[in-house]
Write a structure and sequence with these properties.
Length: about 325
């Protein structure tokens, strides 16, 4: 016996259009719930993509710094008495802000693309000092103390002297070989850097940091780009793998927003001719950085020698090996 007014009785007595609306509403609710579920899954997936989140954090920081610099520039501009000069200053500040924001976005895109090759995880290499040595004999990047590599652009304007010293420095618990890298522009010292390298037992050559200074007219202009692994959560990266293969992609350094280079191995059979000689079976790699998203360099490494040529893909400028000397 049915109770009058029960849900079953009401459903049976409901008009067909009401039943249709109920069915449509149920379908929409189901689809909406499915859509939310998919969104939740995507959000969860993105939340575990540490590499991409790092890129987003760097983008936010870059934009904030650009706007901060803009406000400082405006503060300087309003203290200019001449109205024409003041207006010009403000226009330049606005243009600089636009350029800086473009660089921020370009840097994000470089990092985003790198994440597709590096993977979603954290960059947190295990550094065990017992696993490293100061004997750096990787055939593509040998660093013998007392050896000096000298590079020169064909027009003679820029000279780079890369001297492997007998000095070492302990960084992040690892004893590293110290290299003194000096860049001269028109015979004037414009960059003075100490680089620190060590090799692990597998043959990877690691880059543990740099103390770098750029000079203008003999005076210090900036130390931007300096970092040491283990300090301020900065981390070492790999300069050269022991058994490189085309498609290898890796970080060479990790100091977010300060020093970030990526390298990708393109081939192992390039031919190179430079003043120092002719070389076959060279490793060709391509280097990028989110700090200069428009920059692109090709580097060539000859087995048993090391870096013999660097080509700026944007300007076409070549840094060619002209001599190797030993003490």
């Amino acid at each position: 016996m049915k109770v009058k007014g029960s849900s079953m009785e009401m459903k049976q007595c409901a008009p067909k259009w009401t039943q249709s609306l109920t069915a449509v509403a149920f379908t929409i609710a189901t689809l909406f719930a499915g859509s939310l579920s998919a969104q939740d899954k995507n959000s969860a997936a993105e939340a575990t993509n540490i590499c991409l989140q790092t890129a987003r954090d760097a983008l936010a920081s870059c934009r904030s710094a650009a706007r901060s610099d803009y406000q400082v520039a405006l503060g300087k501009c309003i203290n200019i008495s001449d109205s024409t000069a003041r207006r010009s200053c403000e226009e330049q500040a606005a243009a600089d802000l636009a350029d800086a924001l473009d660089t921020c976005q370009g840097g994000f895109e470089v990092r985003q693309a790198s994440c597709q090759k590096l993977g979603r995880g954290r960059y947190d290499p295990v550094i065990d000092p017992k696993n490293f040595t100061t004997t750096i004999d990787n055939p593509y990047f040998p660093l013998v103390p007392g050896t000096t590599f000298t590079y020169l652009t064909p027009n003679g304007r820029i000279k780079d002297v890369f001297a492997v010293t007998h000095h070492t420095r302990v960084i992040n618990g690892v004893t590293c070989v110290q290299v003194h890298d000096s860049v001269y522009t028109n015979d004037e010292l414009t960059e003075n850097t100490l680089d620190f390298f060590a090799q692990d037992r597998e043959g990877n050559v690691w880059y543990f940091g740099e103390n770098t200074a750029e000079l203008e007219n003999g005076l210090l202009a900036t130390i931007e780009g300096s970092f040491l692994s283990g300090l301020n959560n900065d981390k070492a990266g790999i300069i050269m793998k022991p058994h490189p293969a085309p498609g290898d992609f890796y970080r060479q350094e990790f100091s977010l927003g300060n020093a970030e280079d990526y390298a990708e191995t393109l081939n192992l059979n390039s031919r190179v001719v430079v003043p120092y000689g002719r070389f076959n079976d060279c490793l060709k790699s391509q280097e990028t950085t989110p700090l200069e998203p428009d920059a692109l360099e090709d580097k060539y490494y000859a087995p048993g020698v090391g870096n013999v040529l660097t080509v700026d893909r944007v300007t076409g400028e070549r840094d060619e090996l002209i001599s190797i000397t030993t003490e």
